[in-house]
């Protein structure tokens, strides 16, 4: 089942992007581009959620709604 997880991305002075989430403790990733950072964050989030489910921790993320807004990053 797909769930919606909000993450925060910021560009650090070193030129890399950092992704964190207030909704999923332990999610901290960085990458050279926004796309790379999102890809790594997706993998880390999946692994963290798998570990939580094995520990019988409650599923607190919201299911994806029928409609939602999504910011699409496009490079030129």
TrEMBL record:
InterPro entries: TTHA1013/TTHA0281-like. This is Type II toxin-antitoxin system HicB family antitoxin.
